[in-house]
Amino acid sequence: MSNNAQQNVGSLHGSVFQKLFGTDGIRGQAGNFISPQLCLQIGYSFGISLESEGPLLIGQDSRESGSMISSALASGLNSAGREVWLLGICPTPAIPNLIKKHQAAGGLMVSASHNPPQDNGIKFFNSHGDKITSQQQKNIELLLKQETSTFGNFGPTYSRDYLLKGYEESLLASIYRLNLSNIPIVLDLCYGSATICGEKIFQQLGAKLNVINGSPNGKKINVKCGSTYLDHLKQAVIETESQMGFAFDGDADRVMALDENGRVVDGDHILYLWGSKLKEKNELPNGRIVSTMMSNLGFEKAWKAKGGVLERTQIGDQYVHSKMLETRATLGGEQSGHILSALNGFCGDGLLTALQVATICQENKNTLAELLDKSFTPYAQRLINIPISNSLIQKSWKDSIQLNALFQQAQEELGDSGRVFVRESGTEPLLRVLIEAEDQHLVDFWSMKLQEISNNTI
Fold it and tell me: 410 and 348, same structural domain?
């Protein structure tokens, strides 16, 4: 390992080092935390940690730092004797799809998902196309601490962007022989990964398309566009009198939809609509859907009223994925629009999800607005952040008698028609508190009260 790399890795020791991996790979500011030196060593460590033979795939979104990081990762993998195939700009779900198709040893996606342009990150996949396990993450972190002074065989790097054709074909195959003939649809491609094939796929299916933010632009990715900012999509849908609109995040592994009236169809509604269709066809084992603790209580009650089962997990697609495998569920996801299904090997795929939603409307001979009207009414939700003082960090926020009494009082008043969900941030000294109820006034009241009192008690 070079001195610069050793210094960079050395700065990760202790508490910071332990947080090198977040809920979905490694993420941080490009060129600062995500430096070329660190990426070189990550590539080498990942390369020697894998037992499977075969090439390693690397894809990226449109961020300006993507090529630098991809090159450094490839160099690290080459120094571990690994062959590397560079896919260029592509959706994250293309990586696991092509790993399985070409029997690759694994893959890396260079993306910070929905984060702003100055950030970047690395997502890791094994030879099965799954995200690597927590133990594999620990193995990589341990290897990063070790100094490497000699190298053995060196692997080559090849450009393989033409392989994306296989991913595109899998998207078309996922909807069988259905089409979207002359249906007016707006796509917000977020200046990111979806720009590579999103417009092409919907055009091939006959949709009457309007596209915004449709070219790759690393300076604009996720900036007031995409799945986290729906204002421009709403305007475009209404102005063009389209039946629906879809907004993707930077690496196209999640999607949010809008109906013709500009109403948001989030991950909970997508799970309800898709789950209902599968249940009608007897293609949803035990009527089971897996989601997280953030999923709307209105969704849960409506799904149970249909005879379905909703399994909740911790927040993060890795937990949803794990629970789906454990319970043999075939559909799951998050409120944010990260949807996993057996249709594509349980990998979040915004483009595939959008196609499913659009073709469900076709099959049902309903507009998305009509299906939304038949689904469920979401409960009011508000998420607030409560700072944790240094004194409580040394112990635990659970030791605060006043705070926990307040949480309990709020839950008692909300009763069965609401809930208080508390979790500790993994990156900041904060409690993230979700208040949810049928009555918006109750949500507003308890949000304000918890925020005010907590400022004086924590």
Answer: no
Domain boundary among 355, 373, 391: 373
What is the percentage of the chain residues whose pLDDT exceeds 90? 75
Tally of CB atoms within 10 A around 135: 7
In 3D, which of 314, 422, 433, 446 has the Cα closest to residue 383? Answer: 433
What 3-state class would DSSP assign to 77? Answer: helix
Same domain assignment for residues 385 and 369: no
Residues forming a β-bridge with 355: none
The CB-side HSE value for 347 (13 A sphere, CA atoms) comes to 29
Q: Please pick, among 49, 113, 341, 454, the residue that the annotation labels catalytic.
A: 113
> How many CB atoms neighbour CB 396 within 10 A?
10
Q: Which domain holds residue 432?
A: 380-457
Structure tokens at 73: 């990762």
- Amino acid, res. 366: N
49 has catalytic annotation: no
Please give the sequence-ordered ranges of beta strands (E in DSSP) within 328-379, or none if there are none.
331-333, 339-341
SS (HEC) of 171-214: HHHCCCCCCCCCCEEEEECCCCHHHHCHHHHHHHCCCEEEEECC
Between CA 97 and CA 120 the distance in angstroms is 22
Q: Quick check: 311 pLDDT over 60?
A: yes
Q: Which amino acid is at 115?
A: N
CB-based contact 162:197 (threshold 8 Å): no
Q: Give the residue from 381, 373, 365 showing the smallest Cα distance to 418.
A: 381
Least confident of 19-23, 190-194, 309-313, 432-436: 19-23
φ, ψ dihedrals at 422, nearest 5°? -120, 130
Residues 287-299 have pLDDT tens digits of: 999 999 999 999 9
Q: Is 393 found in the same domain as 361?
A: no
* CA distances for 152 relative to 73, 80, 81, 192, angstroms: 17, 7, 7, 37
CA distances from 110 to 89, 130, 184 (A): 9, 16, 33
Nearest-5° Cα angle at 438, 434 to 441: 80
Query: pTM of the full predicted structure?
Result: 0.90
The residue among 322, 341, 373 that closes a domain is: 373
Residue 424: exposure state from Cβ atoms within 10 A (0-12, 13-18, ≥19): middle
Is the same domain home to 363 and 389? Answer: no
Q: Give, in degrees to the nearest 5, the angle at Cα 338 between 433 and 372.
A: 90
Q: Report whether 379 contacts 296 (CB < 8 A).
A: yes
pLDDT tens-digit map of 76-89: 999 999 999 999 99
N- to C-terminal Cα distance for the chain?
44
